[in-house]
Amino acid sequence: MPTDGSRAAVVAGLGGWLPPRVVDNDELASRLDTSDEWIRTRTGIRQRHAVDPGTSTADLAEAAGRRALRSAGSDVVDALVLATATPDHPCPASAPRVAARLGLSGIAAFDVNAVCTGFVYALATAAGLLAAGVADRVLVIGADAFTTLLDPDDRTTVPIFGDGAGAVVLRAGTAGELGALGSFDLHSAGEHTDLLVVPAGGALRRRSADPREHFLTMQGTAVFRHATARMAESSRAVLRRAGWRVDEVDRFVGHQANARILSTVAKSLGLAPEGVVANIDRTGNTSAASIPLAFADACVDGTLRAGDRVLVSAFGAGLTWGSTTLRWPDLPKVESPRAVTAAG
């Protein structure tokens, strides 16, 4: 395999996992000032999965990673990149622990935190490792136990977020292959950090007398405006680089933040509504896990088929956003993310 930069990152395996506990809108309405209708009409979400006490991001990541390796037909990888905003500890990173639990101790393993754009950033990072010849196979995982960052009494954030993990195995290949990732378009706007932030708990403010500052705060209207504009702009950039017309896109897999965001971006781009891949009604916003979980669900139900032209775009706190493209690969086996046990 050449190491002159001509190597492409090719999707060779896919897996996802959602914790067993399902929280539907009626359960939230029983304790918050909200209703099933209010949540569904504003977000498109009817249920989400949530971790039980004692279940960590590493647990989610391990389960999804194991399924992706199984899908790829090999447990041999040279590196593991974990996209997460909810590591098990502030220090160290969670990726080495996940690698060890998967029997991969000794490989390169590190975390990437771009919040809801994390999986796209992690794909780009892994593609760089493959292009440089640092690795021949990379396990990329997006995992978040995002409900652990929420004020349980906040009717604004609690209905939106859920927990889960999704993963892909990338191998070195060539740009003409099915599954080869196209160009990446990555951006940030740190001047808008305050739009989505957990104010306390980091080096800037380790502790706060106000317990609410240890939970996520969100300025929803501004986030919606930025997300729809940035995802559309970034999507156009990668479509130009891929040489694809909008009407040539078979599927749009966007970060599952809000059903209205997905439909607004699709409309702005001129994409057909039936081409939008969405599982947010069943998962909620799972942050870095949302795109690989959408991949997995769409693979299982036949929405994604080998050869499909797929546009991928995400937006998250930071602010961060990014996009890429690929022709969907012919994956031999993808399991449903809805499992009875993590080991399944």
TrEMBL record:
Residues annotated as domain Beta-ketoacyl-[acyl-carrier-protein] synthase III N-terminal: 110-190
InterPro entries according to UniProt: ACP_syn_III_C, ACP_syn_III_N, FabH, Thiolase-like
Active site: C116, H255, N285
Gene Ontology biological-process entries: fatty acid biosynthetic process; secondary metabolite biosynthetic process
Pathway the protein contributes to: Lipid metabolism; fatty acid biosynthesis
Region named ACP-binding: 256-260
Compartment annotation: Cytoplasm
E.C. numbers: 2.3.1.180
CDD domains hit by this protein: KAS_III
Keywords, ordered alphabetically: Acyltransferase, Cytoplasm, Fatty acid biosynthesis, Fatty acid metabolism, Lipid biosynthesis, Lipid metabolism, Multifunctional enzyme, Transferase
Reaction catalysed by this enzyme: malonyl-[ACP] + acetyl-CoA + H(+) = 3-oxobutanoyl-[ACP] + CO2 + CoA
Gene3D superfamilies listed in its UniProt record: 3.40.47.10
Keyword Ribosomal protein set for record: no
The organism's place on the tree of life at top rank: Bacteria
Domain notes: The last Arg residue of the ACP-binding site is essential for the weak association between ACP/AcpP and FabH.
Function: Catalyzes the condensation reaction of fatty acid synthesis by the addition to an acyl acceptor of two carbons from malonyl-ACP. Catalyzes the first condensation reaction which initiates fatty acid synthesis and may therefore play a role in governing the total rate of fatty acid production. Possesses both acetoacetyl-ACP synthase and acetyl transacylase activities. Its substrate specificity determines the biosynthesis of branched-chain and/or straight-chain of fatty acids.
Family per similarity comment: Belongs to the thiolase-like superfamily. FabH family.
PANTHER family reported for this sequence: 3-OXOACYL-[ACYL-CARRIER-PROTEIN] SYNTHASE 3 (PTHR34069), BETA-KETOACYL-[ACYL-CARRIER-PROTEIN] SYNTHASE III (PTHR34069:SF2)
Protein name: Beta-ketoacyl-[acyl-carrier-protein] synthase III
Organism encoding this protein: Amycolatopsis arida
Organism phylogeny: Bacteria, Bacillati, Actinomycetota, Actinomycetes, Pseudonocardiales
